[in-house]
Amino acid sequence: HQTQVVIIGGGPSGLLLSQLLDRKGIRSIVLEKHTREYVLGRIRAGVLEHGFVNLMREAGCSGRMDREGEIHAGFHIAHQGRLDRIDLAKHTGGETVMVYGQTEVTRDLYEARDAMGGVILHDVQNVQPHGLKDARPYVTWEQDGAAHRADCDFIVGADGFHGVSRKSIPAEVLREYEKVYPFGWLGVLSETPPVAEELIYARHDRGFALCSLRSRVLSRYYIQVPLTDRAEDWSDAAFWAELKRRLPEQVAGQLETGPSIEKSIAPLRSFVAEPMRYGNLFLAGDAAHIVPPTGAKGLNSAASDIYYLYHGFQDHYLQGDSSGLDGYSGKALARVWKAERFSWWMTNLLHRFPQGTETDLRLQRADLDYLFSSAAAQASLAENYVGLPY
Ligand code: FAD
Ligand code: DHB
């Protein structure tokens, strides 16, 4: 193979970048370790920032999202028996978020790539980037027992947290920052109408809970659980009972339960790898950074990386200006760290920390009291939630 950009990883980051580049006449191939069915079977994020939504529009993949996605102008926080609302639009001059699942985003991107004849190779093994400091880097892999190679100008590592790209940067260059939280989120997807029109984030003495949704007939709920729990050990009945305990009575009374169609536990982690560029390799999305899910910044931070990379490649190939690519790591990291701060803050605000002291609890309560007594604090939350500017 000969191409301009090899993209390792066919998740939302890699697919969105290849689609955006193709529309500007920049050629790429995407190498994905798993099958398409496997990638589409993963239930992940559900809330899209307006910047992400605009990028999907620019990529020409927003038809179904604009028809079926829900625009949300606010969400609720349940705490101390109260249910308070954050008015996103009011505090941001009219900005909103879009509720539309990552699964659907990925499906739409696959369809758009197919329609344009984009090259996405699935089920590839042993992907390995080479010559990162050379003028002509290349990537090798195996498929159906045969060895393959693609020569290119640049390699993008969009292969998630466990991918090969970050690991191919020499240890003396790469600096990693990490914080692991002492709990996970147990998530359930069910074909039931959502308990409320808008999302509800709940702080409770028994632990955090979140009521989210994918559509009017598909709900997504999460509860904080110890890291030692296993999803198989949680029956549907036990999950619904625990969720109800953590919600205000008027909400719990409205909850429609049903069989789960997906149930899994995700650990919570803050992680940043610096720099996000090494020679001709650029890291993007989960390959470079992870946030705890509180505040829905994971997929959205991946999208802002893609925005910077897309513009960097465009300037490089169409105008001969490499300043965007040269500034990529610094620009992307500046925004990533703000998303890291926000997700860490929202996680601290709403979770029950097993080692937390009485003092920690009072500080957390004061944080919530301050939030709902200050328009400035609500504006700060709202501005971060809808997404900081690119
Ligand atoms: P990924 O989606 O991880 O895609 C990377 C792709 O690369 C994968 O398809 C993988 O198969 C492929 N790959 C990996 N290694 C290789 C290799 N060596 N060679 C080739 N291909 C490879 N965010 C939220 O905002 N809200 C949520 O509720 C939420 N829930 C989450 C739950 C879980 C269990 C996880 C893991 C993440 C969740 N996230 C959530 C985060 C969000 O889903 C990610 O930020 C987002 O998927 C990042 O996209 P990506 O394309 O960068 O990485
Ligand atoms: C969802 C996940 C989040 O982490 C969040 O903050 C909001 C919604 C979701 O999966 O729907």
Automatic annotation (TrEMBL):
Taxonomic superkingdom: Bacteria
Give start and end of each FAD-binding domain.
2-343
Broad class of enzyme this protein falls into: oxidoreductase
List its EC numbers.
1.14.13.2
Q: Write out the entry's keywords from A to Z.
A: FAD, Flavoprotein, Monooxygenase, Oxidoreductase
Which residues fall in a coiled-coil region? none
Q: Name one GO molecular function term.
A: FAD binding
The molecule here is called: 4-hydroxybenzoate 3-monooxygenase
Q: Give any single GO term for biological process.
A: benzoate catabolic process
InterPro entries noted in UniProt: FAD-bd, FAD/NAD-bd_sf, HB_mOase, RIFMO-like
